[in-house]
Design goal:
This protein has about 575 residues and is an alpha+beta fold. It folds into two domains: about 160 residues, Glutaredoxin, CATH 3.40.30; about 325 residues, no CATH class. Helix 2 crosses helix 3. The protein is globular and about 105 Å long.
């Protein structure tokens, strides 16, 4: 075979291999994420939601224009994430970045700002350096309006936890992008909703007091209210039950219904006040007694592996209440003062439920003990007090005059008092070896002594889920859950409770996406300040010095070489 013919055959063979490889790789898709924290790899649930899209979901992201470097990084990450979505959903994901501050017509701009607020986007003020070296302040809306057909939802993408630095808030916001964006898609495209219910009949919070969380839950679930005494036979239709601040003792039938619901694999969110006390009593009188509540649940929770203690947690890290600071006889003048009976709880950041949340506002919360008598049940702490807290046993006198003195951290020696626990596993029935024939007839439930795999969350403050309510002639006004009207800050109650219910009701759903963690690689500001000159010299002076040294050595060797001739 001639060399020319051999080269031609090799060329044709290579050409055929390239064609076949292109056909194969056009049909087989794979991407390699080389980052240590897999920041460019979507979770399986995200891919499943995107693959099931049958119509266009359109994102209008209001994060564009002249912004600080951190927000530009967030903008780029949002664009990257939406492009990742497009890889799985194709043209069913569309997006556009909009600068709401563009244009010279101030009237139109203010009208747009008002419209975005009414639709649910939260504005924030940022400072940016102008061309003359000064600073200008502008309003931005770091969020998106997401549309699917006639449905629309607002997504706020920037977290604002006052206890964290701007860098950490930004990093937490970037960590949550996949969850926030796919959650919007999931809400808009969800057709078959699971059912959950608020338990009634024992003096629980009414529909207005849980109105805000109910409104948020209806984006995902069919939300009902059911009486354990009247509608118990339909109990198993619900994926999760919510027991929101009961104030009357549970009857034997109600306890049996909840117990057997759990034995059949049901999930329960308990929000229990072990100690009975309210701010209404303190507003009437400057002091009141905190008494031990009689809910008739202690034996049941104990059997499941938990004990809510008859005490009150006091914490230096606390919310404020309005106190009249005017002299007697003068015009009342109210100012916010710390109230240690309203702890601001922090999370250990150890679960998808409590990851990267703002502090949780509570009122008269009790401590919780976890028991080792239930080996088949796993327990995980979700909420706890700060490093400067303590407990007082009930019954005890609570005096409003305590706000006049500054809390002494030295007297708050306890730390990490448990106030919220997740329990998962196979629970033992509290009705083992008890007569239940009458209860079987009333409820239609035959007794089971051990549960299937079930979950529950126990929170030792019923007010954690309660929003403020104002009844007015033109209607009932419901405040956002977690909003503090005195500090104008919104705490993390609502996200925490939504995450809790998602985890209980939707075991394999979106909640797992919240566990994503993007590692921060930030400079140590203290080290930068102390070693700034050293690193400037090393990074600027050393390269120049090496170049000069290289030139001198090369010149010396050249002269030495040619001097010999």
């Amino acid at each position: 075979m001639s060399k020319k013919r051999k080269n031609l055959l090799e060329f044709l063979l290579l050409f055929v291999i390239i064609i076949i490889a292109n056909i194969i790789f056009s049909r087989v898709y794979h991407r390699f994420d080389l980052t240590s924290d897999n920041r460019y790899t979507l979770k399986p649930k995200t891919r499943a939601v995107l693959n099931e899209l049958d119509d266009v979901v359109y994102f209008k992201v209001y994060l564009s224009g002249d912004m600080p470097v951190g927000l530009k990084r967030m903008q780029n990450r949002i664009r990257e994430m939406l492009n990742e979505f497009r890889i799985y959903a194709g043209d069913n994901i569309q997006y556009r970045f909009i600068n709401p501050s563009s244009g010279d017509d101030d009237q139109k701009r203010q009208a747009l700002f008002k419209d975005l607020r009414e639709k649910g986007l939260e504005p924030t003020n940022v400072k940016s350096r102008d061309k003359e070296g000064g600073y200008t302040q502008k309003v931005i809306f770091p969020g998106a309006l997401v549309n699917h057909g006639e449905r629309q939802t607002a997504v706020n993408l920037l977290k604002n936890n006052p206890g964290l630095s701007a860098e950490r808030n930004l990093n937490h916001s970037i960590q949550a992008l996949e969850y926030k964006l796919i959650d919007a898609v999931y809400k808009l495209t969800l057709e078959d909703r699971k059912s959950i219910a608020f338990v009634t009949g024992q003096g629980e919070l009414d529909k207005y007091q849980v109105g805000d969380i109910t409104r948020a839950l209806r984006d995902y679930y069919q939300v009902d209210r059911m009486d354990l005494e009247q509608e118990v036979r339909s109990l198993q239709d619900y994926q999760t039950l919510i027991v929101a601040k009961p104030q009357k003792p549970f009857s034997r039938q109600a306890k049996y219904a909840l117990d057997q619901y759990l034995m059949r694999g049901g999930n329960i969110l308990w929000l229990i006040d072990r100690v009975q006390i309210s701010m209404d009593s303190l507003r009437v009188s400057s002091s009141t007694m905190a008494t031990i509540g009689t809910l008739n649940l202690s034996d049941q929770l104990f059997k499941y592996g938990i004990r809510v203690n008859p005490d009150l947690v006091k914490d230096v890290q606390c919310a404020v209440i309005p106190v009249n600071t005017a002299y007697q006889g003068d015009q009342p003048q109210f100012s916010p003062s710390p109230w240690t009976y309203f702890p601001l709880l922090s999370s250990p950041n150890n679960h998808a439920i409590n990851k990267n949340l703002n502090m949780i506002r509570t009122e008269f919360v009790s401590s919780i003990d976890t028991l080792s008598t239930t080996p088949g049940v796993r327990k995980q702490v979700l909420l706890s007090s700060s490093d400067h807290s303590k407990t007082i046993q009930a019954p005890s006198l609570v005096d409003l005059g305590e706000v006049s003195g500054k809390p002494d951290p030295r007297s708050f020696r306890q730390k990490d008092l448990i106030t919220g626990v997740l329990l998962e596993g196979e629970f033992q029935s509290v009705f083992v070896n008890r007569f239940t024939s009458e209860l079987e007839q009333k409820t239609g439930m035959s007794p089971r002594e051990q549960s299937r795999m079930a979950r529950m969350i126990v929170l030792s403050d019923g007010d954690m889920i309660r929003n403020n309510v104002r009844h007015q002639p033109n209607g009932t006004m419901i405040s956002p859950l977690g909003y503090d009207q005195y500090t104008r800050q919104t705490y993390g109650n609502k996200p925490f409770l939504l995450n809790s219910i998602h985890y209980l009701a939707d075991k394999e759903g979106l909640i797992g996406i919240r566990a994503r963690e993007v590692k921060m690689r930030l400079l140590d500001k203290n080290q930068v300040a102390t070693e700034r000159v050293r690193w400037q010299v090393l990074n600027v002076g050393l390269p120049i010095l090496l170049i000069i040294l290289f030139g001198l050595v090369k010149n010396y060797l050249r002269k030495r070489k040619y001097r010999q001739f």
